[in-house]
Each structure stands twice: as C-alpha cells, then as structure tokens.
Amino acid sequence: MPWTQVSYLYDGxxxxxxxxxxDSFRHREEPADFTPFSEAAAxxxxxxxxxxxxxxxxxxxxxxxxFGREGKRWAVRGFLTCLEERELWLWRFYQLGFEEKGAVSRxxxxxxxxTVRKAVRHLEEEAHxxxxxxxxxxxxxxxxxxxxxxxxxxxxxxxxxxxxGAPVPAHVAKILRRHRH
Length: 181
Hints:
By secondary structure, the protein is mainly alpha-helical. It has helices at residues 14-27, 54-63, 68-77, 86-100, 111-131, 170-179, and strands at residues 4-10, 29-36, 47-49.
C-alpha cells in the first residue's frame, strides 16, 4: 500500500522534526514538506500539525544509532545545514538508513546520501572557518591574534597605518613564538 503524502507543520526544532519522523512512519505518511508553524500557509496536501513530543523524539534519536557512527553524525548535523528543503532530504536519509542500517553512510553514490553528506561537509567547513574568527581577550585560551605573515624582524608587517618593524605587543609576540614554523 503506497504511503499518503502529507504536509507536516511543526515548531521548527530538531525535537519537533524527530516527532514528525516518528508520526510519518507510524501513520505511513510520506511528507510532501515540513513547515514551521510560523510559516504555515495553504497546501495542496493534507496538513498534519505535530506538537513536539519529547519521548517520540528520543525514540527516533536513539534509533539513529543503527546508521553507524558516521551515518548518525550526518543524520543529526544535517538539521543544522542550510540545505534547501533539508527536512525532506533528512527524512529520505532516515528512511534509507532504517532500510540499510549501518551501510547507509557507505552508499556514497545514492543521491540522498550524497546530498546530505555534502551539506554536512559544507556545514563543518563553515564552522571551522568561523571558529578562526572567534574573538577572545588577548592571551585568552582561544586567542588567534597576530599577523598572518611572521616577518623575520619580529615587527608587524607593512600595511596601511603600520610602521615597518613596529614593536609587537607582548601577548601577540608570545603567540607568534608558539606558532612559528
């Protein structure tokens, strides 16, 4: 028997999405789309409003273990991506994962797996780049202050408003000494 297509309305949270996944499998409904309550509009598909249910979400989250370590990582982090229609892609990934179990992360030629994997990779690369911009107080535990180019004379590189060989503040000099090649 084919699954009925339904438009899911939910609160936009990950727990709400997992509750939708639970309900879709329970009622044998294939989501046509997932829409946060705040963006609800008329749909050509029957709409199902789903309230977040922590226990249902917890059950789905625990079941993701069967995807393997890599598959679960993609399944969870996929929700944080800016992938267009990410919930639909993730729902398809979950459906495939429940069928293939741990093999889902090895099927890189499958269009659903490839799309989710690439979206998560993009997310992780963006997070890595943003972490380099984190601002900490000078000498703080995550401080990355200092010039990109380390001139041999120990001064700040030439640039607008810089004197050649201007002294480097002590906290920056300490960081430079630690990161010299």
